[in-house]
């Protein structure tokens, strides 16, 4: 299996455990997001409630830098496993409420708030753990393979979630979701414990970057560590440019690609829950193709240029939703949007991990997740604007803003992002 260069990261013992752990967790997250989003929309009948639910799922982005700092201090693996045990506990609460007939939208929003304190950090933490585990030469391939867990989850999780709800009900769906979270936590604990440990083909480990002595680590303040991490991002122009782009796409592009999807399916295209699953799966299928493409061909691409070009194409695909298209065309647009989104965001992550110092990786990826805070802002603004200007006008405003600001980022940081020989474009 590992003879193909794109699969070389599986030679690392930690990655062999982390990949299925991330896969199970990602499937559970996507199933839960679709099921609860549809439940809130149907039971409340309000797009404002739907956007509030979506916003609450990302409230914890403010805590992501702190979680990254904690990961740098006590170990990314331990923090990630503890988070996933918490997901299982909260899923068990929903399971109990559904089984006893006490579930209602207000309680779902309460659980979403608690889950939202942790879940936004998951992607950043798993990315940092991958970068700490695999050899630098395999980083691009590892990032592409790792991203397949999230993209395949949006395909399979969307279809499975819709299927379970339509045929077996919420209780059965949440039994599966809770089990997946527990499995993800158990496999995360099995991955390599040491920061910088690189598993070899025989399952042993070598240390690429020695961890600081426990005594020295204890002398530093967590708040000082956090401040140093944020300063590292702010005073490194390339990191700052990538963070600005991450904040922009979460404000303008991701609401149209994720949080508003139940509304788009039901009120724009008149689809049922299974139709929603197919719409989400189309977008995720394109993203999965992007992940596989980058894992196989990533060494031939220039990350910064790829990030900017595919970000523009992503917005242009979403602009097609302003036209009176049918469901098949919309699915094609979403598939193309997902492809470009995956190429853009994986390239962004590669830039962050290559540019940041190894000791700052947890904090840098925590700050990266902080950029997601613009996503709930974008969702809440969309919920307020749609009844006023309509969905298609909203798409025009969001896409226009996204394209304009992407151009501004490319111009302001042109020396770091555009030259072929710039560090951000090293193959």
Explain what this protein looks like in three dimensions.
- The protein is mainly alpha-helical and 427 residues long.
- The chain has one domain: Growth Hormone, Chain: A (Up-down Bundle), CATH 1.20.1250.20.
- It is 76% helix and 1% strand.
- It has 20 helices and 2 strands.
- It has helices spanning 13-44, 47-56, 64-74, 76-99, 105-116, 120-133, 139-167, 170-190, 214-219, 222-234, 237-252, 254-259, 261-268, 273-297, 303-319, 327-355, 361-370, 374-389, 391-412, 414-417; strands spanning 197-199, 205-207.
- It has a two-stranded antiparallel sheet with strand order 1-2.
- Strand 1 (197-199) and strand 2 (205-207) form a beta hairpin.
- The longest helix has 32 residues, at 13-44.
- The chain is globular and about 55 Å long.
- The model is unreliable at 193-219 (pLDDT under 50).
Rg over C-alpha atoms, rounded to the nearest angstrom: 21 Å
Enter the CATH topology name: Growth Hormone, Chain: A
- Overall geometry: globular
- The spatial strand order of the largest sheet comes to 1-2
Distance, first to last CA: 24 Å
Task: List low-confidence stretches.
Answer: 193-219
Tell me roughly what share of residues is in helical segments: over 70%
- The top-level CATH class is Mainly Alpha
Number of helices: 20
């Amino acid at each position: 299996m590992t003879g193909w260069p794109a699969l070389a990261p599986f030679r690392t013992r930690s990655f062999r455990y982390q990949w299925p752990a991330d896969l199970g967790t990602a499937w559970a997250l996507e199933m839960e997001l679709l099921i609860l989003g549809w439940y809130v929309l149907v039971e409340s009948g309000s797009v404002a409630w739907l956007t509030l639910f979506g916003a609450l799922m990302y409230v914890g982005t403010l805590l992501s830098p702190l979680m990254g700092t904690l990961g740098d201090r006590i170990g990314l693996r331990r923090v990630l496993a503890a988070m996933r045990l918490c997901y299982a506990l909260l899923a068990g609460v929903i399971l109990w409420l559904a089984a006893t007939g006490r579930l209602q939208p207000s309680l779902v929003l309460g659980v979403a708030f608690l889950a939202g304190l942790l879940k936004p950090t998951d992607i950043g933490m798993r990315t940092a753990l991958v970068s700490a585990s695999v050899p630098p030469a395999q980083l691009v391939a590892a990032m592409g393979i790792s991203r397949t867990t999230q993209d395949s989850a949006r395909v399979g999780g969307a279809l499975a979630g819709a299927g379970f709800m339509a045929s077996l009900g919420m209780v059965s769906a949440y039994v599966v979701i809770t089990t997946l979270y527990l499995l993800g936590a158990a496999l995360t604990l099995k991955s390599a414990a040491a920061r910088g440990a690189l598993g070899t083909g025989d399952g042993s480990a070598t240390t690429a970057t020695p961890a600081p002595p426990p005594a020295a680590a204890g002398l530093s303040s967590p708040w000082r560590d956090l401040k140093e991490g944020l300063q590292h991002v702010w005073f490194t122009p390339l990191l700052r440019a990538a963070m600005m782009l991450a904040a922009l796409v979460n404000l303008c592009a991701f609401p149209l690609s994720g949080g508003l999807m139940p509304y788009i399916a039901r009120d724009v295209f008149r689809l049922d829950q299974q139709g929603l699953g197919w719409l989400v799966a189309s977008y995720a299928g394109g993203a999965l193709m992007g992940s596989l493409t980058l894992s196989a061909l990533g060494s031939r691409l220039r990350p910064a240029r790829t990030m900017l070009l595919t970000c523009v194409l992503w917005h242009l695909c979403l602009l097609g939703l302003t036209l009176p298209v049918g469901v098949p065309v919309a699915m094609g647009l979403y598939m193309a949007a997902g492809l470009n989104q995956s190429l853009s965001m994986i390239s962004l992550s590669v830039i962050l991990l290559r540019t940041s110092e190894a000791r700052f990786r947890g904090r840098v990826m925590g700050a990266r997740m902080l950029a997601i805070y613009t996503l709930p802002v974008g969702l809440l603004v969309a919920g307020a604007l749609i009844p006023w200007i309509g969905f298609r006008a909203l798409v025009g405003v969001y896409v226009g803003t996204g394209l304009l600001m992407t151009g501004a980022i490319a111009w302001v940081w042109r020396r770091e992002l555009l030259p072929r020989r710039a560090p951000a474009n090293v193959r």
